[in-house]
Amino acid sequence: MSSPVPSVPATPVTPHDLVRDHTVYACVMGSRAFGLATRDSDTDRRGVYAAPTPLFWRLDKPPAHVDGPAEEQFSWELERFCELALRANPTVLECLHSPLVEYADATGRELLALRGAFLSREAHRTFVKYAEGQRRRLETHLREHGEVRWKQAMHLLRLLLSCRDLLRTGELVLDVGAHRERLLAVRRGEVPWSEVVSRLRRLRDEVDEAAARTPLPAGPDRARVEDFLVRTRRART
Predict the structure, then answer these.
(1) pTM for the complete prediction?
(2) 15-118+220-235 belongs to which CATH class?
């Protein structure tokens, strides 16, 4: 006897329903995760939801990401999240390494256990590319408005520090630890822009030097990630 074919849900599922009912992993990001929070810091929440497999059988697929429902909340569908992490997207990789995990079910815990499968030498290219884009935005704003966005400058330095240490050790650590006070001084505008630029240049050199000797593999373990995704989809029919 053939097994019954799962039915497509008749009731429409909203994007916020997916976040509310199908989140597998949720964490806090931003300054709180980086050890750079002050009294005025927001609480940025990020998450991953695994949409029920039958929803992908429709012409209209589930959304790849969802804003909300809470303020400062953003979530990715599991497959999209894994795709970005395999490409060494800095934002997504950092979400997997947040020290402030608020929720993880069995699927979420397995995703966390796969963190190492996503890390590779590709991080050198993607982190540096992202940092260069952020620096150009800072310099454009300075030229056009005559002011430095100090908070963004602080986070740019933090990103390069994180990338350097990832390439050196093979581990992605978000908390800035002993660098906290120096970084917060940048945020307060107490460090001249010329000094910030010098620090950025030194860090970029250190990042490139670390990349030449990194213990990270050339590419991510795509097979492990795909196996995880296939099993998760099958379990959610």
Answers:
(1) 0.91
(2) alpha beta
